[in-house]
Batch of 2 targets.
Target 1
Amino acid sequence: MVFAALLLTNCSSISKTSETKPSSNLKDAFKDDFLIGTAVNVDQIKEANPQLAQLEIAHFNAVTPENIMKAEVLQPEKGRYNFEMADQLVDLAKRRNMVVNAHALIWHSQLPRFVRQMKEADSVKKFFNDHITTVASRYKDKVYSWDVVNEALNEDGTMRKSIFLDKMGEGFVVEAFKLAQAVSPKTKLYYNDYNIEQPKKRAGAIRLIKQIQAAGVRIDGVGIQGHWNVNNIPFKDIEESILEFSALGVDVMFTELDVSVLPNPFDSNTADVGARAEYNAKMNPYAASLPDSVQKKLADGYESLVKLFVKHKDKIGRITLWGVSDADSWLNDWPVRGRTNYPLLFDRELKPKAAFHQLINIKNNVSSNQGTNHVQLK
Ligand code: G3I
C-alpha cells in the first residue's frame, strides 16, 4: 500500500535520495540498461487523466505515438498535412524529458484514402517522396528516432503485398531510408515489424537490413514489436534474434511490447491489424477478473523476458510497452472486439500489477519467477 502510494506521488525522488536504495520506477531501475518507453494515444497526449500522466512521467523516458504520426492522420488529404497532435506530442515529450520514437513513415496500413485509391505508379512514388520528405524534415531535430518502414514482410520472409511493393518494387524499403536520411541526418532510422524474432521472418528482416547497408544507406536499428501470448513467449527465438540482428551492427529494440493472456483464435501468432475473428464467450474467459494463477504466469513471463533483455543490454537500446494500463490496450479489441485483456504492467485502476513488481525486483536481485513453463536462459 505504502509502496503503491509512493509510486504515485514522487517516485523520482526515491532513487535520488539514496544510491544504494533500489529504484521503484521503471526508467530509473533500468537506467543503466536501456530506455523504457510507452505508447500514447490522443487522450494521453492531452493529459486527460492526471493520474495516468503521473505514471507516464514516473516510469518512462521514451514515448511512441500509438496512432497520431501515421500517414492517415498526418496527411488526411493530398498535400494537406495536420501536425497538430504530433506537435503536441513533441512538446509534451520535451517538457517531460522523454525521447520520441516517431511511428511510422511508411506502412501499408492506416494510409489516407487518397493513397489507397491510387492506380498510377507515379502517383504513389510522388506521395512516398513528398510524405517522407515533408514529415521527416519537420521533425528532424525534434524526434530521436523514426520507424521508417513498418511491417514490410510476410511470415515466410518474403515481401508483404502492399501498394508500395506493387508500384515501386522491393526497393521501396531502401528508398524510404535514403529519403529519410537525406532530410533528417541526425535522427535514428529503424525498421520495425512483428514476429521478426521468428526464423523465416527474421531472415527476411536481415535481408532488408543488408540491402539498405549495401546501398550505402544508414539504418540504425531494428524494432522487434513483441506482441506475444503468455502461453507462448518465444524466448529462444528472441535471444537468437538479438544476437543475429546486432551482429549486423544495428541496435535492437523491443518496440510494442505487450503479452496477451487471452485465447488466440488463430493457429499462429500474429499482430496483423487486419486479422479478425468473431466474438464468443469462450474467447473472453476473464471478463470479470484475472485469476491469480494467470496474473502470476503473466508476471513470470515478463520477468523472464526482461531478464533476457538485461542479459543483452549492450545490444538493446529501448524497451517500449504498447501502452500503460490494461484499460487502453488495443488487445481489448483485437483480433476479437469487446474482450477484456490484461497485457500491460498497470491494471484498469492504474495500480501496478505483479508483473510490474517482478520487473522492479529484477534490479533488487529478488527473483519471484518460480515458473517451470519458461525456458532457462542461456
Ligand atoms: O480515430 C478513429 C475514431 O475517429 C473512430 O471514432 C474510432 C471508431 O472505431 O476509430 C478510431 O480509429 C481507431 C484508431 O486505432 C485510433 O484509436 C481505429 O478504428 C483502430 O483500428 C486503430 O487501431 C490501431 C491500430 O494500430 C490500427 O492499425 C491501434 O490503436 C494501435 O495500437 C495499432 O498499433 C499497431 C502499430 O501501429 C503497428 N504494429 C501493430 C500495432 C498493434 O496493432
Note: Confidence is low (pLDDT under 50) at residues 1-19, 371-378.
Target 2
Amino acid sequence: MAIVGLTGGIGSGKSTVVRQFGELGVHWVDADDVAREVVEPGTPALKAIEAHFGRRILQPDGSLDRAQLRQIVFETPDERTWLERLLHPVIREELIRQLKPDNYHLPYVLLVSPLLLETDQHNLVDHILVVDVPVEVQLERTMARDNNSREQVERIIAAQISREQRCSKADDVINNDRPLEVVERQVRELHDRFMVDFG
Ligand code: ATP
C-alpha cells in the first residue's frame, strides 16, 4: 500500500494526468478540494475564522468569502500566519482520513497537490511524481485556460518552487510537453510499475 504524491507547477497538467490515472481505476484525493471542504458551512474551521475576522468574512448565505479572505491575508502577513496555523493541521488530518487504505482497493492511491513540496504534505507520501513542462509551456497553457495575463501567471510561478527544485525531489517525472496520447502511454507504464512495486 502506498501514497503517491502527484505535483507540478500551475498549468503543468496535474488535473489532466490524474484523469488519465482515473481512467485506469486509480483513486485520488485532491488537496485543493480538501482545502475547500474543511471550511464549508458548519465546520469548526469556518467557525474559528468567523470568530477571528467577524461576520464580514462570510457571504450572505453563510459560506466563506474567499476573495475577501485572500485580500486580507495578502495585505497582512500576520493574518496569513494565523490562517495557516489554523488550516494546515486541519487539512492534513482530513487528507490522512481520506487517504486511508479502506477507501481504495488498488495497491496505491494518489494525493494530487500543487503545494506538495512547499508544505509538509510531502511527509504524507511514499513516492513523489512530478508533472513537468518547460516554464514557457506552463505560461501559455495557463493563459489560454484561465484568460490571465502573462504577468499574473508569472507572479504565481515565481511564488512556487522552481522547476529544477521540484524535479530534483521527484522519484518519477512525467514529461507533459507532448501530445496527450504519448502522455497517456507514460501514465500506463507508471501504473503498471506501481501495481507491481506497491502490490
Ligand atoms: P493548476 O495547477 O492550475 O490546477 P494543472 O496542473 O491541473 O493546473 P491542467 O489544468 O491539467 O493543469 O492543464 C493546464 C492546461 O493545459 C489545460 O487547459 C489542459 O487542457 C492543457 N493540457 C494539459 N496537458 C496537455 C498536453 N499534453 N497537451 C496540450 N494541452 C495540455
Note: The mean pLDDT is 96.
